[in-house]
Structure prediction request, 233 residues.
Amino acid sequence: MPKVYLSPERRPAPHAPYYGFPGVYEHDVCVEIGAYCAEALTRCGFDVMVASPNKTMQERVAESIAWKSNLHMPIHTNASTATLKEGTAQGPTVLRYGRAGGISDRACQMVYRRLMEIYPRNTHRGVYQKDEFYEIGRTPMLSIYPEIAFHDNGQDAIWIVQNKKRIAEALCKGVCDWFGVAYKEEEKPQTDYDKLVAELEDIKEKYRTEHASAQALRGRILAAIEQYDTVAK
Ligand SMILES: [Zn+2]
Prediction:
């Protein structure tokens, strides 16, 4: 089976804060999505290696080459501002190597389509060429570089935080599409005990989702107060 090397965002906090989510940063979210994605890819039969968080981009690419991966896939979320103000850009993008219609483009389109299947808004950012990125231009194997959505936009940040596992599974489905592998759903619970555990997980997930929304709202209120204070001075 093909070998997939996953490389979630390396830079730790305070790089890339999530708008409206105090204490949430791109690194932690992407590492979590990477772990879910590794789980799904393994279930589908792929050999998977996940970059250890402290490795540099150079070390990751070298490791991916030494391991003879068939696909190198960084995992990132996007930003349209370099400030703490809310950005207006929204939606998934996948970054490719080389020309439109080339191998990387076709593979990236498959992952992009799977992300758009679950993304709730009608954006059209599509696939872009980014050969100058180290983990695109310097990987001799195929690379697919998803920028899942914009963490500096309130609505996108909420969507990412609430859908980490679904996003990871969408990435996995795109990879399956490219390699012609059938996507394998997570096993359905069998015994009463398993059902109970699944139900509990569901409740926990709902709690986390509602907690995340409340946190996001709190962030927006705090930002508004801060803005008001600045204007009032
Ligand atoms: Zn990033």
User: Anything to note?
Assistant: The mean pLDDT is 94. The beta strands are 3-8, 47-50, 71-78, 93-96, 127-129, 142-143, 145-150. The domain at 3-179 is CATH 3.40.630.40 (Aminopeptidase).
